[in-house]
TrEMBL record:
PANTHER family for the chain: ERO1-LIKE PROTEIN ALPHA, ERO1-RELATED
Active-site residues per Swiss-Prot or TrEMBL entry: 356, 359
Protein name as catalogued: ERO1-like protein alpha
GO cellular component: endoplasmic reticulum membrane
Presence of keyword Methyltransferase: no
Pfam families: ERO1
Cofactor: FAD
Residues that coordinate or bind FAD: 148, 150, 161, 214, 217, 249
Length: 431
């Protein structure tokens, strides 16, 4: 396995063709299949949490922003069934008891061993996220609510992206205007350069964090271009690829070079998430781990499919080497992790300010998925120490919610990489 040199982050996505081939021909079809199963298609989320940062001025009335609830019969069955092992059930009960005592602190924090995990007085990796625990949360059928064009745009959407970059990408100074290259460019020619020279001066971890966020942003914008509302009238509604929209966002000339950089960030995000899948294999290989939906034959089949996907992820030849992140001075590394932890927590909260419910749903899911990725990458020792017998209490746990968000978030990035192939062919045909 060739581990990607992290000194120069661009090296990590240099072999785009290898990723394309691996994803499009091997991993993508298998993953899509798995994500259609009952275990993975239902995600529990609280979409009604108020925005903690500002009073939302508009409530998105866009038709395509609505989230369809799953059918009550299905939801009740699902909520009764979703516990994946007797052990997890027991721990979930403990969590509930803690919540009744009001003891759950849903913050992300580093433990004494400086490992990232969702934490509470109990370990929230077991109890799930705050959303999972909330009585306002509901199961949503992800297949009924695909990520696609919603029409959410303009000042409200920019405010979210601005806050995400401005507040969480370790800005060097207080900026009143957005910390985004395009807006820098339009306000004054040298500002984009200023942004990138500042970014280049940042340590590798902070640049990596910026690239993950930018990769997620690129992925969302690829999805809305690939499933665009092409026609909406009395007779028909047609969704499909909008090549013009894609070009406006990613063409090198139309974006003065920004588009290709954003696509590289998408590949970077892909590599990081793929690496986490490769590393987490031992957790899913535990005999006590079951995908439990109440249909044992199907559950067994889906567990096998899941293991095949993780084995495939392991076989990828160009893995990213995350060990060189946070590798410097111990004190400095701890401070960096703390910065990233706080930034991550903040992004999760900003997602509650997204006015469009459909966008909020996928934004929350993907943020939680990325959080789970980081948790896996920094829990290497615990994962390696997992007991193979079901009698011992495992040192590493993932809640069902984390598992669903991890695979679905990666499914989004994998689909984006696949969609890039479609757009490339369409653009070639245009020429
Ligand atoms: P935006 O995408 O809003 O970007 C704002 C500015 O950020 C740009 O001018 C540019 O300077 C910079 N920028 C753009 N891309 C990147 C990047 N990859 N990296 C770094 N900087 C960048 N719309 C839908 O139709 N469907 C959805 O499912 C959906 N989900 C969303 C989820 C979230 C969390 C948010 C905040 C928005 C979502 N949107 C969705 C809206 C969508 O992302 C855009 O904001 C919207 O289409 C307006 O696009 P824009 O061209 O004005 O630029």
């Amino acid at each position: 396995i060739y581990l990607c040199p992290t000194g120069n982050l661009d090296d990590c996505a240099c072999d785009v063709e290898t990723i394309d081939h691996f994803n499009n021909d091997q991993l993508f079809p298998k993953l899509q299949n798995l994500l259609e199963s009952d275990y993975f298609r239902f995600y529990k989320v609280n979409l009604n949490k108020p925005c903690p940062f500002w009073t939302s001025s508009s409530h998105c009335g866009l038709r395509h922003c609505a989230v369809k609830p799953c059918s009550p019969v299905k939801c009740i069955k699902i909520s009764l069934c979703f516990q994946y092992s007797a052990d997890a059930n027991k721990q979930l009960e403990e969590c509930e008891k803690e919540q009744h005592l009001g003891a759950v602190d849903v913050s992300l924090r580093w433990t004494d061993e400086k490992k990232l995990y969702y934490s509470s007085n109990l370990d929230l990796t077991v109890c799930g996220s705050a959303d999972e625990a909330s009585p306002d949360s509901q199961y949503v059928d992800l297949l009924l609510n695909p990520e696609r064009f919603t029409g959410y745009k303009g000042p409200e959407a920019w405010q979210i992206w601005n806050s995400i970059y401005e507040e969480n990408c370790f800005k060097p100074y207080t900026v009143k205007r957005p910390l985004l290259p395009d807006s820098f460019r339009s306000s004054s020619g040298g500002e984009a350069r200023k942004f990138y020279s500042w970014l280049d001066g940042q340590c590798v971890e902070k640049r990596a964090f910026y690239r993950l966020v930018s990769g997620l942003h690129a992925s969302i914008n690829i999805h809305l271009s690939a499933r665009y509302l092409l026609d909406d009238n009395w007779f028909q509604r047609e969704w499909g690829h909008n090549v013009t929209e894609f070009r406006q966002r990613f063409d090198s000339e139309l974006t003065a070079g920004e588009g290709p950089k954003r696509l590289r960030n998408l590949y970077f995000l892909y590599l990081i998430e793929l690496r986490a899948l490769a590393k987490v294999l031992p957790f899913f290989q535990q005999p006590s781990f079951h995908l439990y939906t109440g249909r044992p034959e199907e559950d067994k089949k889906h567990k096998e499919q899941l293991l095949q996907i993780l084995q495939l992820a392991r076989s990828f030849p160009l893995h990213f080497d995350e060990r060189s992140l946070f590798a410097g001075d111990e004190k400095e590394a701890a401070k960096l992790k703390e910065d990233i932890r706080l930034a991550f927590l903040n992004i999760s909260k900003i997602m509650d300010c997204v006015d469009c419910f459909k966008c909020r749903l996928w934004g929350k899911l993907q943020t939680q998925g990325l959080g789970t990725v980081l948790k896996i990458l920094f829990s290497e020792r615990q994962i390696e120490a997992l007991p193979m017998s079901s009698n011992q209490r495992p040192s590493f746990q993932l809640s069902r919610q984390e598992i669903v968000s991890l695979f679905n978030a990666f499914g989004r990035i994998s689909t984006s990489v696949r969609e890039l192939k479609n757009f490339r062919s369409m653009l070639a045909e245009e020429r």
